């Protein structure tokens, strides 16, 4: 199995069908494949060799799709950069992965120009925007036009396909190593579950740097479906694309769904009857929002996918049936579903033994979708991967039918707006403020984001800080979505006998009366 396999099949069987539409541009599978082969040749000409990492920092575009295919076609390894990160975090991911080539669009050109001289690994920058090519960068279209197409290197199976950075419990991002087999097995499982019928149009509304979008989009390559792209999520942009391009399938995180169904644009008359399926995941959805969404999109299947980057990304699925009135009577709507095809899921205790049904433990997953490990982090890899099982850090129980119900988060992580926020990263940033003596960061309930980042502070004697000042300080060090949205000042943090901060005690007032301790 290899990432470009679906493209080859579509080029052979549907060469003149539309592969991609973006911003008034559209290309057939034949045209798209030819451009991918040329871009792969251009990357090789710039020095990309087998296994070399190539990064991209960009909003969604047709060129992003070409990058996702051309890098493995030419023998390289993907490193999609998180567009919501601070320059310091992006720089870390470039140097940690050893990315020598970076593609950047107009939205992030200035960021790259500022940090380019600070990078230890970066040699070549390709400008993939639509404006004039900046000095010191290569023009994307010029490279594609002048490069000779090269044959597919056919990196496959256990060959590394990409390094996908996610937050780190130690305060630094971790590079998740995913092979071609990892990503393709997850994609083929989604197809086997009936999520991706042929003849459809998939809308890239979620950010394309995120494996959630790439993971859901990959089976659409195998199905030979059309890819519709908008630069970034906006409610009107999604609705316009569905109506204009006859979109049949889209992935949205719960925060996006809430913003979509509550937006005034939903009240305008529209022809959205083409839409067949909304897949949601990355964080749980409230039943109230789900009910509003199902009322706004009658006849559309809603499917929940649970997983993580380390699982390529799907582990379990809650099919559309369990969202219907008949299905809800089975009592599974608050679950995260059951193990997808070719994945094993179990709930384990502290010793790694399977817990009895109904008993809360840690979710562990085994299968061809499980990551190879964390880039250059053998200790963290060994802690997460044990006897072939990926220990997710999510606390859950399994019922007698194999459905898992997530109730808590065993690792110190917050999910806000579908993005993972590790408390250690935020605490590292907060503690660098000169007024802060100590801090603890927790997730608290948020109707808008699911969970919001909340910082509990102990200040140095005679010092003071406002929430606005602390947030401004944190924005210089970490991504905006990781920054605290609220703060509380206390005289001392509650500690265990071993001297560890008792975050359960800090969370308790916020989560009282709720069925679980995560949103």
TrEMBL record:
PROSITE patterns in the record: AMP_BINDING
Q: Which residues form the AMP-binding enzyme C-terminal domain?
A: 425-500
Name all AMP-dependent synthetase/ligase domain ranges.
8-375
Among the Pfam families in the record, one is: AMP-binding_C
As recorded in UniProt, its EC number(s) are 6.2.1.3
Q: Which GO terms describe its molecular function?
A: long-chain fatty acid-CoA ligase activity
Cross-referenced CDD domains: FACL_FadD13-like
Q: Which UniProt keywords apply?
A: Ligase
The residues forming a coiled coil are none
Q: Which family does it belong to?
A: Belongs to the ATP-dependent AMP-binding enzyme family.
Protein name in the entry:
Long-chain-fatty-acid--CoA ligase
Name the encoding gene, please. Answer: lcfB_11
């Amino acid at each position: 199995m290899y990432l470009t396999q679906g493209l080859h099949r579509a080029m052979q069987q549907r060469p003149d069908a539309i592969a991609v539409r973006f911003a008034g541009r559209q290309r057939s599978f034949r045209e798209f494949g030819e451009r991918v082969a040329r871009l792969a040749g251009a990357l090789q000409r710039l020095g990309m060799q087998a296994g070399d990492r190539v990064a991209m920092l960009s909003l969604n575009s047709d060129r992003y799709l070409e990058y996702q295919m051309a890098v493995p076609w030419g023998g390289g390894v993907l490193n999609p950069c998180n567009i919501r990160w601070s320059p310091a975090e992006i720089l870390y991911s470039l140097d940690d992965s050893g990315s020598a080539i970076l593609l950047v669009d107009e939205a992030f050109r200035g960021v790259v120009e500022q940090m380019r001289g600070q990078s230890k690994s970066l040699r070549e920058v390709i400008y993939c925007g639509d404006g004039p090519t900046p000095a010191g960068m290569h023009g994307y279209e010029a490279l594609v036009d002048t490069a000779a197409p090269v044959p597919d290197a056919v990196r496959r199976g256990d060959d590394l396909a990409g390094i996908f950075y996610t937050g780190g419990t130690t305060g630094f991002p971790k590079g998740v190593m995913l092979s071609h087999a990892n990503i393709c097995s997850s994609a083929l499982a989604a197809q086997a579950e009936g999520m991706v019928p042929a003849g459809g149009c998939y809308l890239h509304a979620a950010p394309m740097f995120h494996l959630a979008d790439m993971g859901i989009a990959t089976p659409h390559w195998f199905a030979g479906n059309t890819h519709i792209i908008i630069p970034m999520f906006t409610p009107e942009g999604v609705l316009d694309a569905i109506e204009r391009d006859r979109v049949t399938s889209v992935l949205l995180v719960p925060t996006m769904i809430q913003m979509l169904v509550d937006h005034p644009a939903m009240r305008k008359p529209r022809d959205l009857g083409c839409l067949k399926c909304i897949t949601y995941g990355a964080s749980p959805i409230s039943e109230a929002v789900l009910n509003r969404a199902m009322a706004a999109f009658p006849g559309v299947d809603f499917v929940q996918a649970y997983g993580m980057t380390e699982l390529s990304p799907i582990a379990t699925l809650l099919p559309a049936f369990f969202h219907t009135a008949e299905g809800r009577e089975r009592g599974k709507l608050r679950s995260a579903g059951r193990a997808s095809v070719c994945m094993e899921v179990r709930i384990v205790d502290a010793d790694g033994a399977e817990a009895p049904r109904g008993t809360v433990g840690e979710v562990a997953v085994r299968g061809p979708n499980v990551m190879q490990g964390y880039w250059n982090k053998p200790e963290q890899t060994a802690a997460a991967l044990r006897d072939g099982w990926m220990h997710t850090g999510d606390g859950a129980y399994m019922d007698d039918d194999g459905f898992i119900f997530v109730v808590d988060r065993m690792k110190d992580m917050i999910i806000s707006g579908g993005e993972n926020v590790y408390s250690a990263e935020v605490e590292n940033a907060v503690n660098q403020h000169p007024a802060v003596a100590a801090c603890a960061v927790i997730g608290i309930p948020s109707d808008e984001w699911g969970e919001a980042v909340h910082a509990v502070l102990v200040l140095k004697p005679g010092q003071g800080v406002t929430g606005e000042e602390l947030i401004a300080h944190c924005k210089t060090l970490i991504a905006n979505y990781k920054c605290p949205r609220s703060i509380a000042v206390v005289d001392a943090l509650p500690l265990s006998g071993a001297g560890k901060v008792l975050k359960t005690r800090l969370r308790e007032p916020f989560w009282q009366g709720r069925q679980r301790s995560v949103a």
